Amino acid sequence: MPRAHVAGWGKYIPQRVLTNDDLSRMVDTSDAWIVARTGIRERRIAGEEETTATMAVQAARQALEVARIGPEKVDLIIVATATPDYFFPSTACLVQKALGANRAAAFDLAAGCTGFVYALGVAAAMVESGAVQTVLVIGAETLSRITDWADRNTCVLFGDGAGAVVLRAGPDGGGILATVLGADGSGGDLLILPGGGSRHPASHRTVAERMHFIRMQGRDVFRFAVRVVPTVTRQALERSGLSLDDVALFIPHQANGRIIESVVRDVKLPPGKVYSNLERYGNTSAASIPIALCEAVEKERLKPGDVVVCVGFGAGLTWGATVLRWTYPQPAPVPVWRRFLRRLRYALAALRSWLRRLWWRVFFVGRG
Ligand code: UT7
């Protein structure tokens, strides 16, 4: 059976930094409280022109570059996000257009902060079935647009960013070895964006009642996380036939440093085997694991043969774990001419998309 190997990786982090001190001037909080209760020191905020799709495209381009493949080779694009550009078209279709990935099917996946792990599971199953060869899996979020900047319970936690991997079919023994996914909808109201959907369509009332912002019962989500993460980690390792001793790197969803510490104590992992970048980016939801994975490779914390465990949890409630064996080495630097060709290709993709839009208008609208 073919396996889904991680052949490329990329990330995009917006420029603007929002520190805890900045937040203490916006709401009744302090750097000391935020650091002690969450481990977060700063987070990144998307610029006015940036959206989930634009950040996803940047991360995806980097991942394709590392994998040394062109966008025309991609069979499927999955974007895990809770903050799509629109309800429809999907953010994945916006990415498909921007990349010029003309052969690719594209869809979004909503599983809160577990979205990337869910997307990896779906993509791996499709690769293993032989349905697809190459998948772009992206986790991207612009949480700053749904954060209530007057609510100190939530606004100190979240940040923006995107991470992407290219999965390619490869031999058994490496790549994604096991996935465990779970959900418990009875906890849906613990972490919710109440307004804007078919239950509470946007109206003056939903805006006045701040229903277009994240609402969270932090303490309950915390208790859920420290219970579910060790369990799903053990289940996924068991399914892969490996043990904790085999794990080279553990990448948990970056939500709260105290959750990570509790999990590490529970599963008895040496802290040196845990990757965390929470203090710099905060909680970027579905983007947190791919950003961390990408950083870990860039910092040479992963080499071919290493076993990595990624564990997510979040809104739904949902949870999931992936066990994978790293197989691809760090790529050699990309020559300048090649980078130029790639840029040219993306510019042509944009032109092509513009021409196609023109074609739709002239051909169909003109006859309507
Ligand atoms: O990505 C997926 C899901 N999200 C999570 O994983 C979040 C999980 N939960 C958490 O990370 C934590 O529950 C929080 C960081 C959200 C809150 O930490 P906590 O230790 O659970 O605090 P708490 O909610 O129990 O609140 C303790 C006190 C309260 O004051 P009183 O009622 O004891 O007087 C809060 O009002 O801390 C207060 N508080 C704050 N104080 C200063 C809450 N937020 C803040 C703040 N600054 N930003």
Describe this protein's structure.
The protein is an alpha/beta fold. The chain has helices spanning 20-24, 31-38, 52-67, 91-99, 115-129, 152-155, 204-208, 218-240, 257-267, 278-281, 288-298, 336-363, and strands spanning 3-12, 16-19, 42-45, 76-80, 105-109, 134-142, 160-170, 175-183, 191-192, 215-216, 247-252, 307-314, 318-325. Helix 3 (52-67) packs across helix 4 and helix 8 (218-240) runs parallel beside helix 9. It is globular, with a radius of gyration of 20 Å. The chain binds oxa(dethia)-CoA. Oxa(dethia)-CoA is lined by residues 29, 33-34, 37-38, 113, 152-153, 156, 191, 218-219, 221-222, 225, 255-256, 283, 285, 314.
Here the CATH topology of the largest domain equals Peroxisomal Thiolase, Chain A, domain 1
Strand order of the largest sheet: 1-7-6-4-5
Task: Please summarize the sheet with the most strands.
Answer: 5 strands, mixed
Overall structural class, as computed from helix and strand content, comes to: alpha/beta
pLDDT averaged over residues: 95
DSSP helical segment count: 12
Shape: globular
Q: How many domains is the backbone divided into?
A: 2
The CATH architecture assignment of the largest domain turns out to be: 3-Layer(aba) Sandwich
Count every beta strand, where a strand is a DSSP E run of 2 or more residues. Answer: 13
Distance between the first and last residues' Cα: 50 Å
Percentage of residues in DSSP E strands? 15-25%
Order of helices and strands: EEHHEHEHEHEHEEEHEHEHHHEEH
Our Rg estimate from Cα atoms comes to: 20 Å
Per CATH, the superfamily of the largest domain is: Thiolase/Chalcone synthase
Question: How much helix is in the residues?
Answer: 25-40%
Question: Which regions contain 5 or more consecutive residues with pLDDT less than 50?
Answer: none
CATH class of the largest domain: Alpha Beta
Bound molecule kinds, no repeats = oxa(dethia)-CoA
